[in-house]
Amino acid sequence: MGEEQKYPTATDKERKIANIAKGFVKILDQVRTVLRAQKTETDAGIIKAAQAGLKAEYEAFVKKHGPVNVPANLNIYGDVTDSGWVLALEEYDPDEKKVTKLADIFTKQIVPSMARPTSADTDHDALAMSLDEFGYPNLEYMAKLRGSDVASVMKGVVDRVVENPETGFLETMDEYLSGNVKAKLAAARTMAQSNPEYERNVKLLEAALPGEIPAHRITARIGAPWVQPEHLAGYVAEKMNLKPERLTPVFQFNPLTFEWSMSFKGKDDWRKGREIKAQTMREIGRAEKSVEATQVWGTRRRNFFLLMKDAIEGKRPVVTYYDPDQKKTFMDVVATQAAEAKLQDIQADFGRWLFADSTRANEAVKRFNDIVNTSVPMKADGSHLTFPGKSMTVLTAKEAKDVGVIPEGAITLYPHQPNSVWKYLRNGNIYLAHEVGAGKTLSMAMIAMEAKRIRGKKKVLYVTLNDSTLGQAKAEIQRTYPLANLLTVRVSTHEERKQKSLQKIALNDFDIAIMRQQDLDRIALSPESETVFIEEDLRELREILEEAKAKGARLLEREIQQRIHALEEKLKETVHEEAKKKNLYFDDLGIDLMIVDEAHSYKNVPYATRLSRITGLNPSGSPTAQAFFRKTQYLNAQFPKRDALVLASGTPLTNSIAEMYNLQRMLQPQEVRRQGVWSFDRWLANFGEIGSQLE
Q1: Which residues of 524-550 are buried (b: 16+ CB within 10 A; e: fewer)?
Q2: Cβ contact 391:477 at 8 Å
Q3: Which of 95, 304, 379, 510 is least buried, going by the fewest C-beta atoms within 10 A?
Q4: How many of the other CB atoms lie within 10 Å of CB of 252?
Q5: Chain Cα centroid distance, residue 499
Q6: Whole-model pTM?
Q7: Pick from 66, 63, 54: nearest CA to 27
Q8: How far apart (Å, rounded) are the C-alpha atoms in residues 430 and 254?
Q9: What is the pLDDT of residues 289-348, one digit of tens each?
């Protein structure tokens, strides 16, 4: 016979490690059994049996291997994804080397039962239960709770709900009577003409309209999209004493490009004869050289008409001179400062002129209120939310009232937390600008879980600042939602390992995927999406470059050229990347809700502007913020309800007014475009003012 084959045998150390790992898995399985029983079972005996099983497994482990938190055990399973469930079973004192307290899961009900209500005492209670269960007034469900019929229940909640004539669905009053109520009123009036039932909507909306902003509270600025072209024309004609009709100024605003243009009636009328047009040009030339244009309301180097053009285009005036020795154009600082001072005078005078005449003032006030003053903020009340799946360590106000004495270690939600959740559920994209200590993490966790339950979100991505905040957020989410399926993702810079991380997100079912900001930054949009955004940015920058060249604005020209070059190089890289067709991108992950904490990290989004020499503006921004902005725009485009983005920060604004502009573009793209202020220059002309001051 041949020599007997020998097999390697495990050492005592290896056997011990294996036994500890097996014991860990048994405890973890039993924890899940208890949580599942507390969530689904109504029989107290079954729950107690599961708790007894957990205690038996835990005590057997401790007897053989010591407390679960001793360093020797942590070295074996401390890095396992679900180890937190086991480690939280005890409070361990490393100095005393003993367990000081066991978790409540051994003896108490820590997860509310998922059993849903089967009856309601009042119609209003039934409405609250319906909103909690479905997110909207479900009359059939409410009637079942009341043991009544739909008509009776509707009559009982008529003071709380109303039908939206544009959708045909019932909405709560707080939802329907908020947002752009003027647009809703116009729709209701149209529908009421054919259906008298909607007269109620008209009356409700009329009562909810925002108070009219009077003339003395309106700052009228040349270049603002709401200013009427006729008023601009009248102002120019009066200040420059332009009498003949052919010299009437013509102002036009393009709602697609958000740009103003200025010309003269006789100059552009092709039906006039050559001599008439020539005469018109001579008269315009005389007006441009008049005392009013070059001294009273302008300077010799930058007359009134050029300053008006600067104003409607949202530019700062620049006066240049040519140096024949150096063969270069330079900015004349003194002449430019004089032109800026005159432009400020014009802006201030236009506001006074506009409201000096009662007819003009009434027209301007009406137009401002019709275009700008259209919306009412939602007074969100989330007190009806019960947050199914939430543990009893976090109590709603109603739960706290019911239990009387708050259990040790439990907290009660602040009113603004359920209100924030409800506001997101009704309005979509939201910014949680809550100060430190106000419970942003808990609010974001509840938004994530309620968005999955009510809005049907499938893949929620939760982004934290760094390793420390990731651990804190994960612990708080697990404490609040013990049964939540969390997927922790770390994205490597190594391409192969990065793709494996992305595959975890793309191919798995989970409640929340949680990662750091640096992980998100390493995930690119697909080349197809990147190309669309880059080409749009290039178009805007090239337009500004041509204007900068024409004006001799060398600093602005150089800055724009650098940005164009960087984008063109990025476009080349993107096209090359598209040829690979191997990688997973952000587009492929299926993310339908992205929640980002400490979102101020992405405040410096690049933007195109004709303005230069403005303190506090940084139009070049940062590539990281730009990549993040494009992800938000991708999500907004993919989900037209605009409910795919939640941002949070205790310091939403820090240095520049442009940060607010970028936030609005991220969260309210439709509204920004509706008001004609998508470009920064137009936005600033509408909401800001450029001034000069000595330092």
Answers
A1: bbbbebbbebbeebbebbeebbeebee
A2: no
A3: 95
A4: 12
A5: 27
A6: 0.69
A7: 54
A8: 30
A9: 999 999 999 999 999 999 998 888 877 888 888 888 888 888 888 999 999 999 999 999
Query: What three-state secondary structure class fits 203?
Result: helix
**DSSP 8-state assignment for residue 280:** H
Nearest to 28 by CA among 67, 4, 5, 54: 54
| Residue-wise DSSP of 592-609 | -EEEESSGGGG-------
Helix (H) or strand (E) holding 431: strand 430-432
DSSP sequence for 642-683 = --SEEEE-S-S-SS-THHHHHHHHHH-HHHHHHTT--SHHHH
Nearest alpha-carbon partner for 334 in 309, 364, 301: 301
99 φ, ψ (degrees, to nearest 5): -85, 125
What are the residue ranges spanned by the domains of the chain?
Answer: 12-106, 219-367, 415-525+585-680
User: Which single residue is written with the structure tokens 């909306």?
Assistant: 205
Per-residue pLDDT of 2-49, as tens digits, reads 555 555 566 778 888 889 999 999 998 998 898 888 877 777 888 899
CATH of 415-525+585-680 given 3.40.50.150, 3.90.550.10, 3.40.50.2000, 3.40.50.10810:
3.40.50.10810
pLDDT number for residue 695: 47
Taking only the tens place, the pLDDT of each residue in 614-635 is 777 888 888 899 999 999 999 9
| Mean predicted lDDT score pLDDT of the chain | 86
